Amino acid sequence: MIFISVDLEHDRTNSMPLLIDPVIALFICLGLGYLLGKLKVGPVQLGGICGTLFVALALGQFGVRISTDLKNTAFALFIYGLGFTAGPQFFANIRGGWRYGIFSIIEIVCVLMLLALSIVIFRLDIGTAVGLFAGSATESAVIGTASEAISRLALNNDTIVQLQANIATAYSLTYLFGLVSIVVFTTQIAPLILKVDLRKEAQELARKLGSADDDDDQIEGLPVFVGRAFRAGSVGGHTIGEFEKSRNWAVTIERVQRGDELLETSVEFMLKPDDIAFVRGRRNAVIAARDRFGDEVPVPQDTSFALTSRDVVLMRKEAFGRQIRQLRQMAGPEMQRGLFISGVRRMGQSIPALSGTILQQGDILTLYGPDQVVAQAAGELGKPLPPGDKTDFMFLGLGVVIGLLIGHLNFKVGALELTLGSGGGALIAGLVFGWLNMRSPSRGGLPAAAGEFAKDFGLAAFIAAIGLSAGPDAIKLVKQYGLILPVLGMLVSVLPAALSLFVGSKLMKIETPILLGVIAGQHCSTPTISSLVSRAGNSIPVIGYTVTYAISNVLLPLMGPVVVALAATLSY
Question: What does the radius of gyration of the chain's CA atoms come to, in whole angstroms?
Fold first, then answer.
């Protein structure tokens, strides 16, 4: 099948044969687009997708085109990958309650209302309205689902092509302003409104969740876990279990040297003042515990411990909604000793692995400790991630096909005919297949790196195709609306965030660092959460971000056909 074709309507293209080659043009868009996306304006980075669109709009002036088949294939790959990676957390958040999920609803309702007003006041056409929605909400996936919905309208082909081109142009005009607005609002304006020091608030919240004063996750070059050797000193006369319990099981005495003999330990082991205790744990906890011991002594070469790390998908129902410290209460004494959760990943984002961090179904926990204890804990908490990084293409192909078939189903509600479309169907299939993979990680593998590539390349190629086709019409739309679209982009971006700030701070009493992460997540804005983490000095805002991001990342793309229907109703 030939996916790529070229339109040679303009004579000037004859002077630039390499530039107008569709394959070369595609990768020029990707390469230069992501290079452009690295540019920063203050704390804001444009991003590769928006950079790709800008380059594509420029190259589109030369008449180069990418075929519809490639565009649709790229979008199906992207939207399925999006659903696959979001599936576990999406279903977990639905079952776990909508305390934070309500902010995703606020985002959608507010944006739709503002969009309706803009259509009526400024007489926006369908494509421009969709581009405003996608750009101000910084949700590129809407372009695909809405473009497909436009293609099903009872309009002639030229009008459909024009409207789809207007989506890309309006998106490019509003995305940058919407992105800058939400970053500035969350990192600077919101803390001023609430009269808080974001960094100080984030540090205090980290301490409440179990971080020690000297446990700054911005410190580089220092090991998270350490082993030290001390004379027992005043700890002598106590059992190891008594000592470790007094330190909230944050450290463990792995072995004890008594004279020339190296002894294995248990919770009942009684220490003597002259014993040399080999202590292991988080760096800050070991440092805090050293005052209980006598002098520190060098660790002999022949007393190293065999330790391992293993990633496990959290599946145990009793652990859902519990703090990390509470997991120890569910385990036996021997499993509590020497086993640590060194990392937590949720929606591809690392969140603080503090004792007060609340865990959710589908979280990927990194267990650290003795091999036998880690293996036992992995089996009780969930299912270990299988070794290797191969993609199960049978599972991938089946998922995409099922999604596309679902997208062709039609539902009638009175006189209104509804359909998810290919994008919506692939998204739903991705959600379900991602959840199935979480339930059985040994099947249907789509490694994190492969999933990110599918999303990034699929969306970038799709956006490049949209931009190239819209190129010749971009200038016309800019002349028609001038500064109206950038201003609307800022308003539609900030007003829902301002409402969420009021609801979260005044009504729901959510801590500021987490609330700002929630707002970044409802906006599906990765640059915003990156700026927040940098501003806060730790990753506490990510705790709120992952919840609303999982929900908005699914609901916003599904709004594409809704926006088209709304605009079609109000603009004609």
Answer: 27
- Number of domains composing the chain: 1
Which residue is it, tokens 């099981």? 249
pLDDT in tens, 192-225: 999 999 999 988 888 877 665 444 444 444 567 7
Does residue 134 lie in a domain region? yes
Sorted by sequence, the CB contacts under 8 Å of residue 192 that are 6+ apart come out as none
How many Cα atoms sit within 13 Å of 540 on the Cβ side?
28
Distance CA 73, CA 457 (A): 11
Q: Is residue 331 part of a domain?
A: no
Cα gap 147→141, rounded to integer Å: 10
| The residue type at 346 | R
Type of residue found at 401:
V
Please name the residue that has the structure tokens 């707002």.
519
Which three-class secondary structure state does DSSP give residue 153? coil
| Lookup: tokens for 239 | 């059992």
Task: Give the separation between CA 51 and CA 31, rounded to whole angstroms.
Answer: 9
pLDDT in tens, 164-179: 888 888 887 888 788 8
Name the residue among 139, 542, 85 with its Cα closest to residue 349: 542
Q: Which has the higher per-residue pLDDT, 475 or 139?
A: 139
Within a domain: residue 353?
A: no
Residue 386 lies in a domain: no
Domain that holds residue 405: 11-201+392-571
As a whole number of angstroms, the distance between CA 145 and CA 420 comes to 8
Q: Which two tokens stand for residue 301?
A: 């070469």
Give the total residue count for the chain.
572
Answer left, alpha or beta for residue 417, where phi above 0 means left and psi between -120 and 50 means alpha: beta
Count of Cβ atoms closer than 10 Å to residue 331 Cβ: 17
Q: What is the mean pLDDT of residues 243-254?
A: 80
Environment class of residue 397 by beta-carbon count within 10 Å: exposed (0-12), middle (13-18) or buried (19+)? exposed
Q: Please list the residues that pair with 282 across neighbouring strands.
A: 225
d(C-alpha 465, C-alpha 6), whole Å: 12
Tokens 């744990």 identify what position?
281
Phi and psi (nearest 5°) for 361?
-60, 135
Q: What is the 3-state secondary structure (H, E, C) of 313-336?
A: EECCHHHCCCEHHHHHHHCCHHHH
If 0-12 CB within 10 Å is exposed, 13-18 middle and 19+ buried, where does residue 90 land? buried
Residue 317, CB half-sphere, CA atoms under 13 Å: how many?
1
